[in-house]
Amino acid sequence: MKKVLILSYHFPPLNVIASQRALGYANYLKNHGLEPTVLTFDWNKSPMDQQCDKKSFYTKIIEEKNDRYTVIRIPVIKRRFLKFMGKQEGNLIYRIWILWCWLNGRLDVSPKVVEYGLSEYYYLRKFVKKGDYDIVIGIYSPHFHLKNAFRLYKKKEIPYVLDYRDLWDNVIIHQNYQPNLKQRMYDYFVSKYWKKWAKHAKVLTITSRPWADKLQEVVEKNVHVITNGFCHEEFNGRQIKKSRKFRILHTGSLYKHQDFTVFNEGLKIFIKELSPVDFEVKFLGAIRSTYQGGGLNGFLSRDEFDSLEKLGGFVKFTERIPREEVMEEMMMANLLYIPTFPKAPGTYGGKIFEYLGSGIPIVAIPSDHGVIKELLEGTNSGHIFEEPYEFALYLKEVYETWKTDSNEAERHPSLNAEVLLYSRESQTKRMSDLIKNELDINN
Question: Which own/partner contact pairs does 285-288 have at CB distance under 8 Å and 24+ positions apart?
Fold first, then answer.
């Protein structure tokens, strides 16, 4: 069985949706004839507790094995210079350092992230030998996985795949993208180095066709589509439960370039007409302890929820909660809401695939006239609304049905064949087929 090394900063128990892509590959590659090992960090510890010096690096490596995959968790070598730079943010010296990083292909300019990247390469250089692995998968983000996969190939001739969860800044595909001078400089350096690092890659993959087209312009090579997905095993044994309240649920972050207008206005019409006492809208994980900066791709901050909060006590927001709790909440929802990205072609939003796996109807508002519309229509998994009154009319219909069907039994999700194409296992099979084709492995 051919051996695959997956480079992924994000991996459980790190509780972010980015961890699920690497976990999906780890869980299912072995089903398709490839033996995976994940190289990551020890997310059972705080970033501070992960640090060590070079002398103790080897003693702090942790190896975990199960019947599906191996995980190697490495420590982070602390570097005085990067600690110093971390205290200089906003100063002239910091801006000069950022420019130096860009010039030298260190595109993750946070000093802490640079430390992680240098520690990963230290491990690859010191502890991985030619022949240990048949292929490496470097998952972006961060950038350093792309760079380290390329450098490992140049040094030890191990073939590699580059797998992009995102573009370097998803706002670059936005219809209203107007970068300032700093952003244009950054775009230039990212394009330069992404092209360089992709040059010798056996396979390039990204999560949607419009994004693949954009990436192809940058790297001048063919790019395949491996979407995100849902883990069907997470839903095995779960039941769709009847709640005491009719609930619309959104999980995850809210972004500045999502459009909430039609959803808000439709809710107002519904609430005004019915004055429901057993109805709520929940936004799980919308409240964040930190908010990435302004601009189109920033998170909505707490004081920007005003338009939603004007709906009174019907709407609730929470901070991040453990994944298992999210799954339980999801199975008690009547509708799952995805605010689309109509001006950002190719943008799914990661949570929509978990919505698919739940078997609960999805409402996407407004239409993106793109990938989300195609996904929902192709899988018959939900509805898209362009006008507030259309959404209000649909909401009234399903709410009144729920009210009259008080004896509805709990049931298991029923997923059609089209939905199952978007499971993590199906998408991992696509990846394994691409890899085996490049390695000339017969099924």
Answer: 285/251, 285/252, 285/253, 285/318, 285/319, 285/320, 285/321, 285/326, 286/250, 286/252, 286/253, 286/254, 286/317, 286/318, 287/317, 287/318, 287/319, 288/253, 288/319, 288/320
Out of 3.50.30.20, 3.40.50.2000, 3.90.79.10, 3.30.420.10, the CATH code matching 233-420 is 3.40.50.2000
Banded model confidence at residue 133, pLDDT cuts 50, 70, 90: very high
Mean of pLDDT over the chain:
88
| pLDDT at residue 415 greater than cutoff 80 | no
Q: What are phi and psi of 247, to 5 degrees?
A: -125, 130
- Given a contact cutoff of 8 angstroms between Cβ atoms, the answer to whether 428 and 24 are in contact is yes
Say if 2-229+424-439 and 233-420 have the same CATH topology: yes
User: How far is Cα 161 from Cα 200, in angstroms, rounded to an integer?
Assistant: 9
β-strands 335-339, 246-251 pairing:
parallel
* Digit-coded pLDDT (tens) for 189-202: 999 999 999 999 99
Element (H, E) at 196: helix 181-198
Average pLDDT over residues 61-76: 96
Domain boundaries, the chain: 2-229+424-439, 233-420
- Longest CA–CA span in the chain (Å) reads 69
Beta-bridge partners for 397: none
In the three-class reduction of DSSP (H, G, I as helix; E, B as strand; rest coil), residue 145 is classed as helix
Look up residue 128 and give its DSSP letter. Answer: -
Residue 304's pLDDT band, with cuts at 50, 70 and 90, is low
- For the stretch 160-191, pLDDT in tens is 999 999 999 878 888 778 889 988 999 999 99
Model-level pTM? 0.87
Amino acid at 160: Y
Residue 364, token pair as written in the block: 């996407």
Reference 22, options 433, 324, 436, 428; nearest CA is: 428
Please count the other Cβ atoms lying within 10 Å of the Cβ belonging to residue 65: 10
> Options 3.40.50.300, 3.40.50.720, 3.30.9.10, 3.40.50.2000; which CATH number does 2-229+424-439 get?
3.40.50.2000
